[in-house]
Each structure stands twice: as structure tokens, then as C-alpha cells.
Write a structure and sequence with these properties.
The protein contains 21 helices and 13 strands. The chain has 615 residues and is of the alpha+beta class. The chain has a four-stranded antiparallel beta sheet with strand order 4-11-6-9. It is extended. The protein starts with 9 loop residues before the first strand and ends with a helix.
Length: 615
Amino acid sequence: MNAHTIDIYHDRKLNTSRFMIHPNSKLRRAWEVMTVCLVLYVCVMIPVIIGFQFVDWARLNGMNTFIDVYFVTDMVMTLRTGIVSNGEVVMDPKRVARKYFHSWFIVDLISNFPLVLFVSSSGKSLKIVKLQKIPKLLRIGRLLKYLREYAKYYNLIVSFLGLAMGLHLFACLWASLFNECYGPHGEVFCSQEELAPMYVQCVHSIMLMFLGIGESTTYSSIARIQNPAVDADIELYYMSITVFMLGTVFTSFLFGNILALLMSWDQQKAQFRNRMDMIKAEMKYYELPEELQHRVRRNYDYLWINQRAYSDMMLLNQPGISKPLKTTIALHLYKDLLKTVPFFAGSDSRFLGKVCLALETAVYLPGDTIIYCDDIGKEMFIVRKGLVEILISDPKNSEKRIYLRDGNFFGETALVIDVRRTNTVRAVTICDLNVLSKNAFNEIAAEYPEFGERMKRTVIKRQLDNMNIQSPTEKAKVHNQLTLVVEKSLKQRRMSVSLRTIYRAKKLGDKLKEIADRASKPIRQTTELLSLRLGTNVDMDDDEEDDDFDYEDDYSDDMSFTIRDAPPFPPLTEESEEEMARRESNSIRTRKRNQLEKFQPHDKRGSDPSSMLKM
């Protein structure tokens, strides 16, 4: 298999045999290429051999024998090659054989049967042997399968291939209707040198009928090559009608595919024009100034010229693409650019992949202000294409500028420190920039602290270079101050993003473990403690389910959990057992007192229990 080929199938190891061949193996691929070449040969030569029987084809017997042996071997190879079923590679010989017997086995058996060993050498018998090879033409399906997998313009190629094969087959069939090359006793009048001109004239006649501008009587012009007195037979008219009908279908299919291909080539341009028409209409509706409309049109013209009418982010945000595949695409798009940035150089692919996925694209026209002085910085810019100028505020020289080109970056200080911009940055030419936002940087820096350290060193170095401090002592002092400020800012950002999440996750895990431990205590202990708390006896069998308790944990601001069957009761102690016994004794005395009160009269005479017997 090619090193760049991605196997999208799943291998099954059940019921496999060591003599089975994987359908994507190099051996099978090479065998398929050889099969396709022989199928092309068969599709070309079998109609010619059948149509021009006056030619002695004995010189091709060796090639024909090789092809017969090859296709018999191919039947064995098919039985020993795994199949793909529902995206799964099946290597079970029984399932492979069952599928082959229900598909191509009968066709292959008929076309590869060695009939020549069982017939005589008469001309009629040899003609039957030649006709036996016609089922081999059905193997063109192998060729179409190969084209469907590897051809870019499959429909167009199939259309041209179908037209060519149709012309070839009908031309050979048209030539087979001539009987002037044979005498009444089977003698041959035509020479082998007449094969080429006769074939060309047959193809010409079939082409005219395919296009609907030929007639069946064109046979007369071909037939008179051998016998000028011959008229067209009725079979030729039937033949011409069939060719007319099939030619209409073939040409319609061919021209339809050509038109679809041309439309697909212009589809993106048509979509761009429709978008521009909508934008122009909207700008006209809002009465935008002409100069502003011109700038908008220039922006979209740049996107179209540079094939950026659809941004890179559209490809990365397509639904259904897995995250590893998105990372690979992003690395291909931005990896070379990131290597030019010092604090990205030398990083591993996993880290660079996260950075590439976080990058956004932006286009600025000449004269556009990318960064305004005194604005609060929220992103860093990397110049992908174009030229930008940094306007430096200098009391001595108000025109001082620094120019940045492809691969340069600016605005990285805003990612580390919450400060205002100190310079204004403008686009000199049309600029294609990649943008890393502060939020994306915070997430990456929290996950990769070493990246934050590299950014810290880069920012401190740039700030010291901009200050242009000459004194080593003062420079060291400023360096320490900048280090404290940057470290404090990075620490706050990490705590505000990732570490707080990790802390909450850890605390949540501890709580869940504690709840699980409580829930694993014997249910009888929980029931007894419940009766203790309620002051009553609650009899419950071991098979009975416990009552449901809701345990809400609000240790975080935005998280609450309801845990069933886990009452937060402390374990029983000796003191609590004594208390339970005392409560039980009091409960018994209370019940007896209540029973006695039921038999006492409500008047004074009934104060003596014996009075009830006197009444």
C-alpha cells in the first residue's frame, strides 16, 4: 500500500486464514493494475477478432493463452482476497467465496472455460470459441471501479470511455455484417492490409450515425470497396436504427457531463459574483460613499485573486472533521509561519497544533489602521503577507517608522500584560495577517507554562530594547520590575482560566469519593440512625429499598449535585447507642401512659379507675 494511502476500513481478525490476501495490500494493488491493463486489451481486441474474421489472428494465440491463464488465476485470487463489507475488511474464506459465487463467478466461469479443448478445428467451431470470449467484456466493470477510486473527473472519463468503446464495438459489428470477404466455399478474398482502411471507414460511418447525420446506406460506400454491385441488406437498417438510438443516449450523456464539468469550474466564480452583487446592492441601499465602496470592492477582489474568497477557518470549521484532522490541517497551513516567531520555535507538534487552531485570519487594505495608540491590547498579530509600518512616538522625530514584512510579528505585549498600545500600526500594502487573541493565549499558557515563560522573556527583552537604557544598574532594576509585573499578570491569568478549573475538578472528585464512601455503608446502619433521628422505630427488611435523600453540594458558585441514597449522617458511636436506648425506653413509657389515658373519664368522678366498673 502506498505510504500516503489512508486505510479507512476496520480489520477483522476472526475466522481469518494466513493464505488470505488483504484487499489493500501491495500485491493486490499490483494485481489490480495488471488486470486493468488486460481488461483494456480484451475490450479492444475481442471485438476486432470477431468483426474482422478474415484476418489470420494466429500470431496472437500466445497472448490469448496467457490472458486465459491469467483470468483463471484471477478467479483463484478473488477467492483468496478479503472483501469489504460495511466498511469492515472480512478475511473469512467462506464469506468471501459466498459473495463471489453470488456475483461474478458464473460470468468468469463461462468466459474462462477452455472451450477450445472440446471443439473441432472447423471454422464454425472456431467462431463459437471467439464468441465465448464476449463475456470477458463485462470485466470493464473492474476498470470503472479503478477509475472511480483514483480518477479526479470520473464522470467525464467514463463518458469519453463509453463513447470510444461504443464506437469501437459498433464499428466492429458493422464490419462483421460484410460477407464479401468470403467466397461460397469459405475462401478469403480480403487481405490483411485492408483491415485498417475498412476499420476507419466503419468508425466514420458509426460516428455519423452517433451524431444523427449519417444514413444506413453509407454501407454502400463501404461495401463497394469489394463489390460495387452490392446493395444494403435489411440487417443494416436495423443496425443503423439501433446505433441512432444508442448514439443519442451516448452523446447526451457525454455533453451533459462536459457541461457539468464546465459549470463546476465556474461555480466558485459564480458564487463570488453573486456575493459581490448582494454587497454592492446593500452598499447602494445604505448610500455609502463611493470611496468606501471602492475599498470594500478592493478587499473582496484581493480575496478572490489570492483564492481566499473562502477563508482557512471555513475549512477548519467544517462539521464532521475530527479534531486530530483539524490539527493536521492547521499545522499544514501555519506551521512554517509559526517557526519564524522566536517563542514558537522548537516547540512540539502538539503545542503548535493548539496554537494553529487558535489563530484567526484578517485582511487589511493599504492605509487601514491595524492598531491604534492608547487602545487596550487584546491580540497579537503575525504578518503572513504584506508590509506594515509601526509609527513610533518620538518627540525628536515624528516621522520615525519601523516596517515589518512576512514572518514578523507585533502586539505580543498585550498577551502578557494588560497595558495600552504605545504605537500605531498601519498597513502599507494589502496585508494578510494571522491573529492570536488574548483569551486563546490564556488557555494555551495555562496548559503549557513553559510557553508563558518564553513569552515573558520575549516581552521583557522587547520592553528593555524599546527603553534603550544605557546604565547596567538601571537596566537590571527595570528588568526586575518588569519581571515582577509580568509574572503577576501571568499568574492571575492562569488562575483565572485553567488552574481554577483544575482546582474545582479536583475538589469535585474528592466530594464524589466521599459521597461514594458514605453510600457504601450498610443500609441497616443508615436505617437505625434514621430512626434515632426521628425518635421512632422504623422496621425495614434487608431487601427493602432505602428512602431517597437529596444531598446538595454548593461548594462552587455554579455547580450543584444531587446524590441519592447517601444521607450525610455520622457513624454510630457508643454514646449514640445509649441515647437510642434511652429514647426507646421513654417512647415505651409514653405509649403506656397514652393507653391508660384512654380509659380515664373526663369528669372528676372518673379519677379512680375502679369507678368504671361501677357504672
